[in-house]
TrEMBL record:
<feature type="domain" description="Histidine kinase">
    <location>
        <begin position="38"/>
        <end position="258"/>
    </location>
</feature>
<protein>
    <recommendedName>
        <fullName>histidine kinase</fullName>
    </recommendedName>
</protein>
Length: 271
């Protein structure tokens, strides 16, 4: 009976859709749990160190015979405590930033920014790390590429893309290209590292998504999500091209002029 057959097919389709939804929900929960366990692990280790240092300070404060040596030790302990608390503060700031961005608040402070200068600056900041890892990072750009952008947010975008290129770049050279295409600025970050399988490429831009849950490579899977949020808030786009085992190339396109918000008030006289 045709009607019955059609009904069965429809129901089977629904069941498949439900199973797919269920699987997606399960995956989302799993990556959230993984994120929470890694984040709490990373918050715990500076805290633990801080607690040990405090214990030692209390011990050193008890008057001993060698006061001078004790006070030198004390200074270095306090310095270490400061470093640990700074680290924690940075992590907390990052978490707060993420939750604010999730809540939909992303206000841009636009000003005139030179993308080439930002990229060179970011490479300069990474200098020590690059040297330690023997990674070559080459910037290909001519002159200035200026736009009305949020400097700090764009620095975040560049930092995330560069640090991924180093993390997943297998120590191979990384090429950064800044160019202009009409009224759009283009930044391409190209590595020759582990690459990303086609089926994983789109979901990397989701929050908490990581392809390799490798504890030796630090991260929470939020970097690319931030990249996309910031780039899209600027009216731009980010995309990836990659081949597994050969490398990845991330392209950021940014309109050089922010869309002017509609001006309230009277019509302008023209001509
Ligand atoms: P993470 O903190 O895990 O690096 P990101 O959001 O920056 O988070 O990236 C998400 C995932 O995308 C990474 O875990 C990694 O699997 C993959 N990925 C990002 N950049 C690259 C790259 N340049 N090469 C290969 N894989 C990458």
């Amino acid at each position: 009976d045709l009607v019955l057959a059609e009904e069965l097919v429809r129901r089977a389709g629904l069941a498949v859709d439900n199973a797919r939804l269920f699987r997606k929900a399960q995956e989302a929960l799993k990556s959230r749990d993984e994120f929470l366990s890694m984040a709490s692990h990373d918050l715990r280790s500076p805290l633990t160190s801080l607690r040990l240092q405090l214990h030692a300070v209390r011990r050193d404060l008890q008057p001993g015979d060698e006061r001078k040596r004790a006070s030198e030790k004390l200074v270095s302990r306090v310095e270490s405590m400061e470093r640990q608390t700074d680290r924690m503060l940075r992590m907390m700031d990052a978490l707060l930033d993420i939750s604010q961005m999730t809540a939909g608040r992303l206000e841009l402070k636009r000003q005139k920014v030179d993308l080439v200068e930002l990229v060179r600056g970011a490479v300069g900041t990474l200098d020590e790390e690059l040297r330690q890892n023997g990674v070559q990072m080459r910037v290909h750009a001519e002159g200035r590429v200026e736009g009305e952008w949020d400097r700090l947010r764009l620095e975040q975008v560049i930092d995330n893309l560069l640090s991924n290129a180093v993390k997943y770049g297998k120590g191979q050279p990384v090429d950064l290209t800044v160019s202009v295409d009409g009224t759009t600025a283009r930044l391409v970050v190209c590595d020759r590292g582990v690459g990303i399988a086609p089926e994983d490429q789109e979901r990397l831009f989701e929050r908490f998504e990581r392809v390799r849950l490798d504890r030796n490579v630090g991260g929470y899977g939020v970097g690319l999500w931030i990249v996309r949020r910031v780039v899209e808030a600027h009216g731009g786009r980010v995309s990836v091209e990659s081949r597994l085992g050969e490398g990845s190339s991330f392209t950021v396109l940014l309109p050089m002029r922010g869309q002017a918000p509609a001006q309230p008030g009277c019509a302008q006289e023209t001509g």
